[in-house]
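Chapter summary example.
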Amino acid sequence: MAPQARLLASAAPAGVASLEGVPHALVLSDAETSKDVLTFVGRARRISDEGVRLQGANGVLALTAAALAPHGIFDQTPTILAMRVVHADPELECDVVVAELSPAADERMLQLPESGLSPAWAGIAPPRGGWESVGTLAASAIAQRAQWGISAVARGATPGAGEEAVRALRAAIWGEPDEDLDGLPRGVAFAADAFGFISGEEQVPMMRSGRWIRLAFRRGHVLSRGPVATGLTAVRDTGSAV
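The structure predicted for these 242 residues follows.
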């Protein structure tokens, strides 16, 4: 039996968390699962440099990455996460964010890097329970809106645009509510496409828990959290503070 791996990286004010002194390998159920995990991490790296959160317990490993996330308190970009859940060694316990993983000699194992990350989005965890069904979306409609958004970003990008301009363009297009997606931000389609969750015809269950919406594809999950609560009355002006 593999030794228990406890990879609990404490939150750090900077962007990097140390993994010094902890085991540096994930033990998964088989070689195919290891390949699946590497594919997810590779797709996440093409989208951003903010890593993948690895949460392992009770024989499963949840992988979460941000397809879209706000940067700064005034950024109205919604938080949109992609998630895959795979089988792992029953003794694996971990909660860490890493930029990459690499194959090991044992095909069931993956090597962790020397250091972890502490992105802001990883501090906002979706609820574990309380999910209620609110309908379904056709995978074909999600795919169509993803392609529309990709084309819109390509048309809007100008040669030599700086990082902030590109980020603002992507946030405007992917963060916009889309009527064809029941008012969800268009970024849920981007996440589903970018992480390979769309596969043929499928009616994708849509569930809500608090401010979170989850799209449960057969290949993975997309979770969306808006920047502000909706359906609230305006705040009444009570006068100037003394």
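To summarize the output: The chain is about 25% helix and 30% strand.
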